[in-house]
Amino acid sequence: MDRNHSVDANSKDNQLEHYRSIDKGKKLTTNQGLKVSEDEHSLKAGYRGPTLIEDFHFREKITHFDHERIPERVVHARGFAAHGEFELYESMKKYTKAAFLQEAGSKTPVFTRFSTVAGSRGSGETVRDVRGFAVKFYTEEGNYDLVGNNMPVFFIQDAIKFPDLIHAVKPEPHNEMPQAASAHDTFWDFVANNQESAHMIMWHMSDRAIPRSFRMMEGFGVHTFRFVNEEGLAHFVKFHWKPKLGVHSLVWDEAQKINGKDPDFHRRDLWEAIERGDFVEFELGVQLIEEKDEFMFDFDILDPTKIWPEEQVPVKIIGKMTLNRNVDNVFAETEQVAFHPGNVVPGIDFTNDPLLQGRLFSYTDTQLIRLGGPNFHELPINRPVCPFHNNQRDGYGRQTINVGQVSYHKNSLADNTPSVSSEEEGGYVHYQEKIEGRKIQARSESFADHFSQAKLFWNSMSLTEKKHIVDAFSFEIGKVKSMSVRQQVVDMFANVDVGLATAVAEAVGAEFPTDIKESPVTESSPALSQLNTTMLPDTRKVAILIGNGFDGKEVESLVSSCLNAGMSVDLVGEKFGVLYGEGDLMVEIDETFLTVHPTLYDAIYVVGGEADNMKKFTMDIVDFINEAYKHYKTIGIASTGKVFFEASDAEMGAGIIMNEGSDVFAGDFIDAVAAHRHWSRKVYGWEE
């Protein structure tokens, strides 16, 4: 295949078609293809007699069921995924020889999995946690995996400490609590005694840890990699995924309630968006540093606890990923997909980041036990779109039927095939980096500064975002039982900012920090604040609270405007069925106050009207208003909805849009929804 041509974006779909099984309308058979005449009763000796061991259909069915579960991932167990394609905007030939990055307009099929880190497969999705963001590119040169997170840094600098980190954040072993949460003693004891985590903890306590949607969070490769071009010239590179919808988050109180109301909130959001045709888009950006500039910064570019500030190293946008098809089977695809940062193609190479180096071993190792042996690459979701040939044989789950007597290199019986490829033929050649030194178990002094970038992050936050960070620390440390650990955390983060540490100390009953010198960093990075993100109404979800006798023109006008703006609308009422408004307009209720909750919507529009039980109807609408108000969401009030607003705790102000019959109401409402939240609303007294 010509290295300058893209892989057909449908090629992976075509490959998977061979494995798809559509059972509708088919006859029931055993796994051997034998048609089955009975699937309700096992074979017995008489009507009330024992089941006979010769019932091969029962034994096959129950044996398969007994073995349906595989070990869940140790981390990133709770995940959801979708298929799509990556389109290159401009050729990166100057920087890399990777074939899928050569020709502008070329497309490559992808499979992307989002996840939480700490929780089990059954845990809630809106917990405070890091989110995994893993992309498998099915390129003509083999599979390339960009395995990252929604935060650009990590807790530790060396992979040997990864088991310690995960042991600390997982449920405590003596009582197996708490699930999918970092608000407990062992995690914060780890943090206080491993201060390299300071920068990551600032991200973890920020709104980035509770994203509104998988579709509204950034993704990062975290590590420093290398691009290598045809001439052998290398650049250091970091990868960024920028969501087209902007970066938006939940409010902590809202996130906790969503976990109870809909623990599948994030996966449902992704699934429904793709099903209704609102395909999910992320632009791929790269930061590039020439090798000669490796040591020109006041941080080590190989340190995984450091960012490259975008103001110093701009992000170059090079392409777009569109997720446009949901999986057919979550287990076969989402659960069995095997990512590995070591799955690279010519033109992409590694650096000496010690965390990355450890991951290059760990990912293969973990798949061996999860997926039952060394042939997990042959599972349909993991198979490359290009052919593969080697001398590997046998093992659990082998699907390839290798023909011929030769399975070794070198050989004469098969003319020494399969043969290796030269670099010119596309063979992978590792970048020839000069390395020298003594064997040593230590860390570079250039990795020793743990607080400067944590302070940079703090400086970059708005007052609202700082308030949320203080609240997050206060909640998390407030769950720690050990007063010693509480104090250690307060003292540690005084090195970042004394004001931050003092506010946390006051909230958790610790001593105010003294004689601790905070980081002197005064710079900020505006790119780190979510208040500077894209603000769009697209795909936002609006609940219209409605009863009989509504103003048909008002409702019809707003619904039409919202749909035209790319938003979705649910009519929420007392009970399912048809409602009747003025002007002979009839509408059908989508949800009831019993089946949904205000936290599941981005905004509400209060229409009101008449109901069978007016007292409960009023209470339900008032509850919606109060919840939306304290979570800073947009609230639209129809002419018939004023009485409900007046009965609530909400006050006129930012994000409260009254329908006074003006032609601009719908536009004002949509603009307010696009703003995401209205932080000037003084709900708690801190907001800007």
From TrEMBL:
It comes from the Bacteria. The keyword Zinc does not apply. One of its GO terms (molecular function) is catalase activity. Residues 29-417 form the Catalase core domain. Its cofactor is heme. Its EC number is 1.11.1.6. Residues 1-24 are annotated as: Disordered. It catalyses: 2 H2O2 = O2 + 2 H2O. SUPFAM superfamilies: Class I glutamine amidotransferase-like (SSF52317), Heme-dependent catalase-like (SSF56634). InterPro entries: Catalase, Catalase_AS, Catalase_clade2, Catalase_clade2_helical, Catalase_core, Catalase_haem_BS, Catalase_immune_responsive, Catalase_large_C. Keywords: Heme, Hydrogen peroxide, Iron, Metal-binding, Oxidoreductase, Peroxidase. Belongs to the catalase family. HPII subfamily. Decomposes hydrogen peroxide into water and oxygen; serves to protect cells from the toxic effects of hydrogen peroxide. This is Catalase. It comes from Sporosarcina koreensis.
